[in-house]
Task: structure prediction
Amino acid sequence: MTDFGKITSGIIEEFKRLLGNSAVIYEDKQALENYSSDEAGGKYYSHMPDLVLKPNNSKQISEIVKIANKERIPITPRGAGSGLAGGSVPLYGGIVICLERMNRILEIDKTDLVAVVEPGVVTNDLCRKVADTGLYYAGYPMSVETSFVGGNVATNAGGSKVIKYGNTGHHVLGIEAVLPNGEIIQFGGKRRKDSSGYDIKHLLVGSEGTLGIFTKIFLNLIPRPGKNVDLLVPFRSVDEAISNVSTLIIESKVLPTAIEYIDHLSIILGSKYNNIELPFQEEAGAYLIIQYEGQDKKELESIYERVGDALLNSGALDVFVADNRTNSEKIWRVRRNWLEALKFFDPYVPTGDVVIPTSKIPQIVRFVKEISKEYNVDIPIAGHAADGNLHPAPMKPQNISIPEWKVISEEILSRIAIKAAELGGAVSGEHGIGFIKKELLRKTKNLQYKIMKSIKVNIDPNNIMNPGKIF
Amino acid sequence: MTDFGKITSGIIEEFKRLLGNSAVIYEDKQALENYSSDEAGGKYYSHMPDLVLKPNNSKQISEIVKIANKERIPITPRGAGSGLAGGSVPLYGGIVICLERMNRILEIDKTDLVAVVEPGVVTNDLCRKVADTGLYYAGYPMSVETSFVGGNVATNAGGSKVIKYGNTGHHVLGIEAVLPNGEIIQFGGKRRKDSSGYDIKHLLVGSEGTLGIFTKIFLNLIPRPGKNVDLLVPFRSVDEAISNVSTLIIESKVLPTAIEYIDHLSIILGSKYNNIELPFQEEAGAYLIIQYEGQDKKELESIYERVGDALLNSGALDVFVADNRTNSEKIWRVRRNWLEALKFFDPYVPTGDVVIPTSKIPQIVRFVKEISKEYNVDIPIAGHAADGNLHPAPMKPQNISIPEWKVISEEILSRIAIKAAELGGAVSGEHGIGFIKKELLRKTKNLQYKIMKSIKVNIDPNNIMNPGKIF
Result:
């Protein structure tokens, strides 16, 4: 562990001169507290920063980092604070660099088909602005309405459209970052290809703020798809639902935009919370929500007829087609509000985030059921079936105290994550390691971990950049 | 520079015991010579290995590497030898590890939609095997008929389908590699997502054998597209051709599979070599070759009618549609045989490989024209217009001697590459750095280079793994 330096009043004055008074928060406990945690279990996992800075540009960030590096003061970069692994919790106090002021969409380049944005842009704001130009940004984490693009890149966020478009990293053409020594370096840019040396850009994607702070991001844009259709497909059992995922992809002959999975208990709680009723909600063991995009209604019809037949022939209880916005919204609301619904019934519900090869979904679901029985704890599951990325969410039984539950729920999620790794998966599919899954990472990627760590030590020898995360 | 160790007769005996006699080539000068160069300028750039080994599995490679690391003997991994940057030339002698025996397609997994292959599989063999199952592997370097998958991954090879599908790295879900210390480690696998720590897999992609030897590669598969249509579109000028690329993408509303660029001189030489005549070949300053994929003829028709109209309205001399294999083949032959055609007329022609943002293509083409005049040298250009990846190929004038030409052509390509970097591009788009572009890399990515180098030193402290490449 690094022996961190202290933030003196002299340093605070320097930051005030650099950023202006309003961009420097300190001493005000209530104001600081807003930057002490993220969406990963609120009060469970929080730590107060000594100082919050709100820089406006990369030059300011570079200056801050240079000072912090010299004085060995820990820096925690923070986007929207919507992370689910504790990545933006300032574990060792020090400085939180909040990127909310760097929220400019710098350019939507219709010739090169690239958007250039600052890290603090809300993902959905970008999606909308891009759509206005007739183009499309395909990044779509479930937190799209709140999360920042910078955070999406820092965790290599996924979402429901990964099967067709890849996760956030697939869209990143370039990153400008401030490295732990304060250097501002751009990796990649508007060019669409680059075989000139190691791909450092992809090393930064998913590095969760441990290698530097992103200050500019270049994102790939594509033509806007014309229309989409959503299918809601109940199955009697999980196995029937899941065994259909890959036949679905092959049969439909085009990649679906999404194949989402949501289990019986999630449906029950979700429909209660959303105050809607879904067909077959009592009988169905699991639902798939499937989305296709196409140029026109005709194309979509031919797809969903082909797919629908295939599904009905292999165990679907029915196939509900939503080809207008209202019906689509009804289907997606339950999936998108899934975590909110669970939190409504249990504020202490944590979210797992395992990934396995698609074919192993039935095995991991079975394992979760066993764990559920063993601990006598309900564990609803939703997730991205097409990518094998599932979110099991153990719900606190009434008779267990909150401190006990923290221990038990962590144990449950750890056992599921380790099982996922044993099945050829990994302990995080899209949320990242943060500090919550550090031990799991070490356990399941021991050899790989050593290489990651050596890169971290190399680039951030003073360990000032988001210390305590990933490693 | 590392002080490399010598290969003793004792070491050779050890390798014979390990691999069997037939897998160990030494002393036989003629046999060794086959492993002394790649497609980057033959005799210009060659160096004899002391020893060629042909291992059969990762365990054997691990043993070889452990011995080499202990004795500090340089290792040069080699695939098909089809590289264009000298990446598989054994610059310091030592051992060439030839991967031609590791050519098994281990699995085509139709449930997880993943192909697992050894590095020595010829790319086209994989494409065909995958197609037989109703699926599709979207990697398609122009050398698809000869190059190995391992080499594609090592250079992050591009090709003509990058605009729609991304370059080779986009398809790689996992890599098993033998690292310079002999450890066999798998990064990624059949899972489609992973936010668990740094993305080392992407660091290996494009590392040109300097960080380890790939022994197993996991590739993403997708549904096979139904049909395709090819358009041949002559334009009076380069500017007219290029200014159409992004409108083309936006207008067609779907991503084309390819938008290839080929200039007047290339067409003239190509049609002579292929003994065919292309429409407008005297008047046209440049051609675009455009490909779309779709589920059926109708879908394709609606695309090419829309696109065709847009092109005719913005300067195309005509739009020729090939929707059957014979006509398609006629169009593509000139593009695919481009380099062979040039080599037929000038065996000393080197191939540049610059990448720029698409909008900068006219600027770089103009610059190449200036250079062409300044040196009084013909420089035909072909390339992947949609990605801004161009291959200028200076042709030796009769009156310049071969040694002089080596110096002059290198100077010409260097100046073009540096100009590309100044325009927001890079010195290699898809061929890699090898040893031919080392200086260019250092010049154009100075800050990034330091980080790359520190990673190299960290993972390969004895500098045994493809020394002299990239760095």
Notes: The mean pLDDT of chain B is 94. Residues 435 and 469 of chain B are 5 Å apart (CA to CA). Chain B touches chain A through 90 residues (CB under 8 Å).
